[in-house]
Amino acid sequence: MRRLRRRDVVRTFRDLVSCIARATLFCPGFETKSSSLTTPVQETNRDSLDMTNDGLSIRLAQPDDKPAIEAMHFLSVHGLNSADYTARQIEAFIGYFGTYDPTLIDDGTYFVAELEGRIIASGGWSRRMPIFETKEGEQSVVCEGISADSAKIRSVFVHPKHTRRGLGSQLVRLSEERAVAAGCRLLELWATLTGVPLYRKLGYEEVGRLPFTAPDVDPLMSVHMAKVIPAEADSASAA
Length: 239
Ligand SMILES: CC(C)(COP(=O)(O)OP(=O)(O)OC[C@H]1O[C@@H](n2cnc3c(N)ncnc32)[C@H](O)[C@@H]1OP(=O)(O)O)[C@@H](O)C(=O)NCCC(=O)NCCS
Prior knowledge:
Blueprint: H1 6-26, E1 48-51, E2 56-60, H2 66-80, H3 87-97, H4 103-107, E3 110-115, E4 118-126, E5 131-133, E6 139-141, E7 151-158, H5 167-181, E8 186-192, H6 196-201, E9 205-214, E10 217-228, H7 232-238
Parallel strand pairs: 7-8
Antiparallel strand pairs: 1-2, 2-3, 3-4, 4-7, 5-6, 8-10, 9-10
Helix pairs in contact: 2-3
Coenzyme A binds at residues 76-77, 80-81, 156-158, 163-169, 191-192, 194-195, 197-198, 201.
């Protein structure tokens, strides 16, 4: 993951510049804010942001959710990513790169979906650059192709028993709403191969591909995807 092939970086950067150029040209309301990394949110407790008829609720993740989030991520990766990655790559995903950045919880930009008191999905967004902390405690920015000012959709995971009920989509849409409210219209992400169909369905386009490398394991292919939310989406969602 930390050693990027120069050719891939150049291609990804070129595509990204084109994506941002399109955003600026075709979205008059496109703007970026670099004054703060995150938007302060009102909800600092366990209030539900959304509740469905079947008792599922979505709320902001709290620091004491971390063990449950990590346990759910473990099940999700082992249960759902094995069609696209080898067992060794999955171990590297969890143990070397980590599945999420807990800083997002402190930022108030990471959400969990809860059913009967159990966390069954999570996801969020951030202006922060994805940073992966290795087991050795080393931190490195690995996504050089990503724009500093965009909103990044981060770490969407669903429990294997609860897939294809729209949870992943709900979490991405909520993150998009928050990002747009914060003035970010360019949304980016690094998708696992498993996540690509979800993001495609939600309107994201592939910008490039990057192999994330870890010791003693084949590189994990990841897909850089992006989407621009047009300015009129604000008034539509406000109506
Ligand atoms: C990717 C993931 C988050 C999708 O979550 P989900 O809650 O099942 O997604 P949704 O129910 O919102 O799916 C929305 C659409 O995405 C597409 N989609 C989702 N999963 C798919 C799959 N396994 N195969 C094909 N299409 C899929 C479908 O078009 C689906 O609509 P449909 O069910 O009406 O056909 C989930 O599979 C997961 O947690 N995977 C493991 C972790 C991971 O790789 N996360 C992505 C990190 S970038």
